[in-house]
Amino acid sequence: MNLGGSLSEQIGAMSITEPQHKGLKEIIRDHALPLLPAKSLTRCLLVCKDWRRLISDPLFMQNQSNSFRNATGIFYQRNAGSAPSFLSIDPTAYGVPDPQLTFLPEPVVIRASSNGLLCCLSLSSSSDDQAYYYICNPVTKEFRKLPKSNADHGTDPAVVLIFEPSLVNSIPDYKLICAFRSTDTKIKGSYQFEMYSSEEDTWKVFGQTCITRSILPTSGVHLKGVVYWQTNTRCDQVELVIFNYIKDRVIVDYIFNDYGVMGVFNGRLCKMSLNDVLITISTLRCPFASREDSAATTWRMIYKSAMDFPDKAIALEFRRSQKHEHAMRAAGTVVFIFAGSKVISHDMETGKTAVLLSGKAEYDLRSVYVPYVNNLVRL
Prior knowledge:
This protein has 379 residues and is mostly beta strands. Helix content is 14%, strand content 37%.
């Protein structure tokens, strides 16, 4: 399934409209370099002084963070007591200088990511016994410590980081949305929502609440002003908490009739499922439709493919590992699968399947796996 042109095709298409006096060097500089990941650009610094000056320019960094949106790997943290690590899809092209995030002033646990930015939660206790959030870029090692939230989010918050790179805003405009258990003891199982806005540098507690099962902390995804979380459902249906932070509206509904994991694929809400080595992805027509509107809540399959493992022994071991807990994450055109002691990546555009981690640690519900985009966004 073709999900977009290759790098050479994109450059070729853009070159057609270039003035005739522009040479290949200028075309590569203006159109190819912003499409490269951060690690590749660090090698380009050695090409010449002009390229070093260009790549170090804040305007170029802004352009690159807007142009490069591909998933390059995942940050992995087995539990809160272990150090983070980065699992790269291609170590020669993608990477970060400090995958353990030691540039941050205190130990952290990774919570979420969005287009090159990571959200982390401090582990050490502060004077008021409340953890703080950090937003950072592991490539540039820049970070911001967010102000104290109005509500206590606990030690395992369900947060979603929202950042859309832009050529207009030189300073990143991002939001952090948290679903946390209400302190109102009269309403058992109720959740409230709080949002941090970098533009206003303040936290805001929303008025809406919902009653639901335990929200899975790392299940949140964002699409067009709406955040979706899955709950710890003990039945054959998947319950979703759907929060529209623009309209301050929340609903809880069953959207799946079978097992699946939420994600965003080609700008649409999707459901991912895994059966043996077969990956299936379906999109939903209208997530906010009522249950009675069966046409609007219909799932349409848009991708189905068997993973082609490079080694038959690995494929057999992967099949066996699915008898235990497993999870999936999607970022762009890449699906990451965690089963047993294996971490697998599958590129839906190229069909390539790769083993990123094998035999080091069994997957469990405490493990954190966060897809990451390797770019130069400044904080």
